[in-house]
Amino acid sequence: MAQDSRQLQTQAQQQVQTLSPQQLLVVKLLELPVVELEERINSEILDNPALEEGKEIIDSNTDEDNFEENGNEYTQEDITLGDYRSEDDIPDYKLQEHNRSKGETPEEIPFSDVVSFYEILLEQLNMQHLNEEERNIAEYLIGSLDDDGLLRKGTSTLMDELMLYRGIYTTPEEIERILAIIQDFDPAGIGARSLQECLLLQIKRKPTSPLKDIQESIISKCCDDFTHKNKDKIIQKLGISEEDYDNAVTELTKLNPRPGSSLGEVMGKNMQQIIPDFIVETEDDGTITLSLNNRNIPELRLSKEFSDLLEEHTTNKENQSKESYDAFLFLKQKVDAAQSFINAIKQRQETLFNTMQAIIYLQRPFFQEGDETLLKPMNLKDVAERAKLDISTVSRVSNSKYVQTNFGVYSLRYFFSEGYTTAEGEELSIREIKRILQECIDHEDKNTPYNDDELTEILKSKGFPIARRTIAKYRQQLNIPVARLRRQ
What we know:
Helix content: 40-55%
Mean pLDDT: 76
Strand order of the largest sheet: 5-4-7-8
Low-confidence stretches: 1-8, 56-115, 264-272
Number of domains: 4
Structural class: alpha+beta
Number of strands: 10
Shape: elongated
């Protein structure tokens, strides 16, 4: 009996979010740190004659408007029309710039002499020949590295976040390929997904030799035994001599399990200055003043000449020749592009201000005291809900942005951390848990240092019922060796 061969056609409805050109412009500007924003604005002024730099006139009698929100005080600047034809012509992005007290002379901003490893990796990325989507994926992977320079997010998580935050639909194979490019950057070990991979990446760059082969075998086949210093097991498993083992381990202990930290402390010294995007000043009475660092950002407005010409062509549009109509289209395109750029700058500044204001609200004790232990658990969602923004927007703002405070310059990423609830219901940040763990180890008897099981019990007695594997993870992130290596 012959069988029918049928071809079935089905329809599937898929909702794909697309961004308008204006939204794309805002997103691009939002990701720029203040120095790159200045360059972008100057480039736009050169490219578009309808956009010009103009100094706004501020009424010298303008009063400061202080407002307080749940204990947070900020200083807001009023702006008058001045020489602008209408309120729409004001350089809108200046509307969210907040000033200092009356008569106060702005002081020079003290800059840090340590540059984040994120900037250094982005510089190396700029030397790669990648298309736009590949570069976007690479930038996101770099932004996802932790302070040690390791990538602790899983591939499926990265795929979901790229789709949600960047509108990029990618594959595990593509992520692996782009990550392999980043793992070739300096220092060796950057972008690794585990301690084992981090060490293997560093060994890979060593010159070929029998000793290199032994090191690679120890880490690839006996990594857990190596971290626990189980010498006899490794020798037996690999069939090597004690001398070869000792020589290999001597070289292995020179490797860096935290390449990101090393990059920030060594390669970053005096390479460039960090220019803060925000300035947060705290007075003795606890008043917090937030301002955007816009001192080198030119003011923008529409060219009056272009606007007048466009109005004239619009009025006489009925009797226009082809040449006149072409001129009208040119003027309109340039004026529309200039106004769109001004609006995008305004939206960028408003978004930055609202995001930083939300961070200050959530981390107010830190900004008043400068004490790291006062930082509360905070994630992107917390800030997004407070600022009434999308999580993806907060993520873009937090990446590669810095804030100048009374206590130093900090990356916005510094204020984000996971939370943990104690047995008594007290909420602490992971940073605080690590501090407590560090204190326990600092005060231990070095003749009989605590192992991870003992540390687990000690923290449990202090009200932190944390699993042993979590204690081990925090200890490794603090770069603290196992108990037998701490014994004196």
